[in-house]
């Protein structure tokens, strides 16, 4: 068992303290998405982890079926307290539900579209995301009050 998995098993990097959004840290589109969520997050509890970082790797190690998945990940708890990970378009819809308000309505409408139609649209955007807004150079440093929500 790796050090990251050991720490996760002891509660260091789990969704127990609120949802975690795992994103591609080398993608400007993804970084802008994180900034959008930070600006619209009324609850202020979602945390962010770059897929390539320690916390992102720990999530992927805990869920071995995710090791080859190239997707945004929304990590949360189900009603029984078990960690659950949403991928592809489901991750986007969960993020919108979390934001609430009009975004929750959009998530409800989006959920009416079957996954077999939603996921190809997600994948098409994912294939060109780095060209849409640049690579890591497009990222900006988080504000001091946002740093605490960024996981290693």
Automatic annotation (TrEMBL):
Signal peptide: none annotated. InterPro entries: DCC1-like, DCC_oxidoreductase. GO terms for molecular function: protein-disulfide reductase activity. It holds the Pfam family DCC1-like. It comes from the Bacteria. PANTHER family: DUF393 DOMAIN-CONTAINING PROTEIN, THIOL-DISULFIDE OXIDOREDUCTASE DCC. This is DCC1-like thiol-disulfide oxidoreductase family protein. It comes from Pseudogemmatithrix spongiicola.
């Amino acid at each position: 068992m790796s050090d990251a998995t050991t720490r996760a098993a002891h509660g260091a990097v789990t969704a127990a303290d609120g949802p975690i959004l795992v994103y591609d840290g080398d993608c400007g589109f993804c970084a802008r998405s994180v900034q959008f969520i930070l600006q619209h997050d009324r609850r202020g509890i979602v945390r962010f982890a770059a897929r390539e970082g320690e916390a992102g790797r720990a999530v992927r190690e805990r869920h071995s079926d995710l090791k080859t998945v190239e997707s945004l990940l929304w990590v949360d708890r189900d009603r029984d307290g078990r960690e659950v990970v949403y991928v592809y378009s489901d991750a986007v819809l969960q993020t919108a539900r979390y934001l609430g308000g009009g975004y929750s309505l959009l998530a409800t409408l989006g959920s009416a579209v079957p996954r077999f139609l939603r996921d190809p649209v997600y994948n098409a955007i994912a294939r060109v995301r780095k060209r849409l807004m640049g690579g890591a150079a497009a990222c900006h440093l988080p504000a001091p009050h946002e740093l605490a929500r960024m996981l290693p």
